[in-house]
Amino acid sequence: MSRLIVMPDADPSTVLVDTTEVSAIAASLDSIGVVFERWVANAQIGADADQDAVIAAYAESVDRIKAQGFSTVDVVRMAGDPSDEAFVVRAAEARAKFLAEHTHDDDEVRFFVEGSGAFYLRADGKVHVVVCTEGDYIFVPKDTRHWFDMGTSPRFTAIRFFAIPEGWVGRFTGDDIASGFATYDELVGAGS
Predict the structure, then answer these.
(1) Predicted model pTM
(2) What CATH number corresponds to the domain at position 70?
(3) CA gap 112, 45 in Å, rounded
(4) Is the dihedral of CA 73, 28, 40, 81 positive or negative?
(5) For the chain, how many structural domains are there in total?
(6) What pLDDT, on a 0 to 100 scale, did the predictor assign at position 190?
(7) Which domain holds residue 105?
């Protein structure tokens, strides 16, 4: 279930907003320039669907976003057996890459086909934590301070949109703010 939690950036123990209502999530994020939508697939997608099949299932929405100036679309899949040591190492490395606060010269645009992850968006003296789940589309404008947590046992498939040819390039702020906020696992109760 999609969820938005808003806290002061200097006091993660004070919750200002905690909602799972999609319209409230979209309205709150709109106030900081972030777009949040729910999409529906035009076709069923199997667990073994390749990149082309995933994109085809959401073709109408993908084409609408591409028309906004996004030249590259791909699919990222993070899933595996938590008892497989190679997957655990790969997942930990991928998670660590996104956990530090950063910005981009490109908008960060994602659609969650399956699974979930949490975006932590820092704006106007607050951190807006968005737990994105299957069906969630999020558009984070370039230069927005943020970080992403996929959890210790990640499982998600997402369509990514890029306007710049380099794809994902993070500019890390050097601020350790992320260490003071609840992790994805703590937010969703993973392992409990």
Answers:
(1) 0.93
(2) 2.60.120.10
(3) 13
(4) positive
(5) 1
(6) 64
(7) 39-121+134-171
